[in-house]
Amino acid sequence: MIELIPAIDIIDGKCVRLTKGDYAQKTIYSDSPADMAKEFEALGFTRLHVVDLDGAKSKHIVNDKVLRDITTATRLVVDFGGGIKTDDDLEKAFDAGARMVTVGSIAVTRPDLFGQWLSKYGPDRMILGADVRNGKISINGWKEDSAEDLQPFLQKYIDLGVKNVLCTEISKDGTLQGPATELYRSVIAAYPTLHLIASGGVSSEEDIDALERAGIPAVVFGKAIYEGRINLQSLIRRGASVVPTF
Fold this sequence. Notes:
Blueprint: E1 3-11, E2 14-19, E3 22-30, H1 33-43, E4 47-52, H2 53-58, H3 64-73, E5 77-81, H4 87-95, E6 100-103, H5 105-109, H6 111-121, E7 126-133, E8 136-139, E9 144-149, H7 150-158, E10 164-169, H8 181-190, E11 195-199, H9 205-213, E12 218-221, H10 223-226, H11 232-237
Parallel strand pairs: 1-4, 1-12, 4-5, 5-6, 6-7, 7-10, 10-11, 11-12
Antiparallel strand pairs: 1-2, 2-3, 7-8, 8-9
């Protein structure tokens, strides 16, 4: 069964969603991300994806206190991303209770540093963020497009031991127009043992079913939850949410 991972994005300590990564297109869904996380846990979810959007924009972690509030209030397995640029940022995320971190920009701009983190903490605690726009990897809160093409970028780090990849098609994110299923299908076809986490555009249970049929191991979704597009109880009854092993 596909692994289901709800998402909480944070700006100014609040739970928000953007459209296509545009900070000007922001909708606030809750003043308390910790309360939202408790609701997910009560429904039966075991995983949570948390993004510090202030951190992504500022290039350093900003909302570590909110992360700590979430990990203190719940037993959810939290992966955290946004603004992780230095050893101090990484330690701050782990100290605040993140079980895993999602790192994208540094893997582009400082591959040596990302390689050190991968070696030090191991592939089970590091998720490679591969945010894609027009076929190129985007960085720094999706404000810049790099020269990196998706599959060579993935290959480089899979060769170094990466096992977990969070891939977001930016043009789909927050649009509720359906995920980039063919993109994810092409990635999993090239790397069938990869734990690929699809992200962006999920609008319905049918979208999740399509990803599952395509062989995608996991999916992150947020706006479809907050907009009431998905019956969460129905999803949980399918038994699709699992705790990863370490």
